């Protein structure tokens, strides 16, 4: 699955930009903290996959955060593709907090969509 996002540097920090044809809705926008946490989790996952860090403890020390926090947020990199698509490109408000979303990643992919956006019919998409 490909999500058409661009990563640009702003003030020396990476920033995730939406697709060019994305038109934000005035009343329903995603929490930027959720999008930032997902992007950071994918970056951490990539660094772990390349062997830069062999343990979560090493990664946590390198980024200057508690190991428990890094471990919990790293789970966001394992969300179902359908959930990621709805979070990054959709306009549905979240039914769960960022904290709960971290634990949702442990659920089966078919169950994640309905729990994240509160739409039981979305489980089949």
Structure description:
This protein has 125 residues and is mostly helical. Helices cover 47% and strands 8% of the residues. It is built from 6 helices and 2 strands. It has a two-stranded antiparallel sheet with strand order 1-2. A hairpin with a 2-residue loop joins strand 1 and strand 2. Helix 2 crosses helix 3 and helix 4 runs parallel beside helix 6. The protein is globular, with a radius of gyration of 15 Å. The two termini are 13 Å apart.
Write the layout of secondary structure elements.
Elements: E1 6-10, E2 13-17, H1 32-49, H2 56-63, H3 67-74, H4 81-89, H5 98-104, H6 109-117
Antiparallel strand pairs: 1-2
As a percent range, the share of strand residues is 5-15%
Shape designation: globular
Residue-averaged pLDDT: 77
Spatial order of strands in the largest sheet: 1-2
Give the SSE string. Answer: EEHHHHHH
Q: Which range best describes the helical content: under 10%, 10-25%, 25-40%, 40-55%, 55-70% or over 70%?
A: 40-55%
Oligomer: single chain
- Strand-pairing-aware structural class: mainly alpha
Task: Kindly state the number of beta strands.
Answer: 2
What profile does the largest beta sheet have? Answer: 2 strands, antiparallel
Instruction: Give Rg in angstroms.
Output: 15 Å
Model regions low in confidence, pLDDT < 50 over at least 5 residues: 120-125
């Amino acid at each position: 699955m490909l999500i058409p996002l661009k990563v640009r540097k702003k003030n020396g920090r990476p920033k995730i930009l939406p697709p060019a044809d994305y038109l934000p809705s005035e009343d329903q926008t995603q929490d930027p903290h959720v999008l930032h946490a997902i992007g950071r989790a994918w970056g951490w996952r990539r660094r772990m996959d390349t062997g830069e860090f062999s343990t979560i403890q090493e990664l946590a020390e390198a980024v200057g955060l508690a190991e428990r926090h890094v471990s919990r947020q790293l789970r966001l990199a394992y969300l179902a593709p359908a959930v990621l698509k709805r979070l990054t490109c959709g306009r549905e408000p979240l039914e769960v907090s960022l904290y709960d979303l971290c634990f949702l990643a442990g659920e089966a992919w078919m169950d994640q969509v309905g729990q994240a956006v509160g739409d039981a019919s979305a489980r089949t998409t």
